[in-house]
Amino acid sequence: MDLKDVKSPQDIKHCSLEELNRLASQVRETIIGQVSKHGGHLASSLGVVELTLALHYVFNAPEDKIVWDVGHQAYVHKLLTGRYDRFGTLRQPGGISGFLKRNESEYDCFGAGHATTSISAALGFAVARNHQGRNNNVVAVIGDGSMTGGMAYEALNNAGLSKQNMTIILNDNKMSIAPNVGGFSKYLNRVISDPMYNKMRSDLDRVMKRLPGVLGSRFRDLFLQVETAAKNAVKPGTFFEDLGIRYFGPIDGHDINELIMILERVKSQPGPCIVHVLTEKGRGLDAAEKNPTKFHGCGPFDPESGLPLAPGSKCPSLTSVFGETLLELAKKDNRIIGITAAMPTGCGLDIVAKQLCP
Ligand SMILES: Cc1ncc(C[n+]2csc(CCOP(=O)(O)OP(=O)(O)O)c2C)c(N)n1
Fold it and tell me: 318-332 vs 349-356: helix axis angle to the nearest 10?
């Protein structure tokens, strides 16, 4: 299977693991090729290549609803949902959008641009599904950065209470646009680094993988019981479990096989679930892995060196003028406070922070 032949997610349903991994490489090449020529959001999409392939392999979009938070990480989704041929028009006048757009594709069930919207939207889709007597799946994909926004907690609160069948994918790359900060980010780090839980999980997974197919399915229930008991002893993800949302993870978000296994499992799980997936922002492009903030959104660049192609205008940017002016004012008046929407570089407040908050 070649990426250019993928006209819809149906086309990847019968791919072998090897083919899926090959598609992952082609998707990365295509995205890097396009963004290096015309600019765009890069690092977030590169981080979710395997995750998006696994989601479209396991779930049945557009009947199943896949809701992407913000929408800046959806280039992979676009390539797998019939927009490969138009991908060269991405963000060009008359071309396809850099975000999800409902009137662009039936696979874009929700369009945003604002962070933190996906769980609320997915919950809405789940309630509407039940209301209409349908049984499609609903998935929200939210980054750890977007998970720090207030609306996500409203949605988690309601999801836990309403017991709707839905899956939340927490795409944890430790980054918002800048490195993620705050209590929730620290909490996720503690979950990830719990050595006892990680050992228990890998031991259980190893046992499961050794079981032959039929036996494996017979032992699945037992496995779930053992895992639940072990989880209760070690308690990763208790924050979510206490809200009434079943927690799975942490999972390697670049291992397609592991992703497919866990997504198949949560698909049949009643009630709301959260799958904690660990990914690397900028994965597959050296310069973006080293500097994911710079490559969150970027202009044209040389893929070899990562250096910008166009030297840029001699005029200072609006962002830098804003930052410099605010710095000048804040130096004179300590009542001036800068608040950033988790993007200090993007709004010029890094200029202020560097000098006034060393
Ligand atoms: C309400 C709101 N605040 C801030 C932003 C700016 N913004 C765009 S993406 C993003 C967060 C990106 O982090 P994450 O959700 O972890 O996704 P990642 O890019 O790491 O995959 C932010 C803060 C926004 N789009 N909407």
Answer: 30
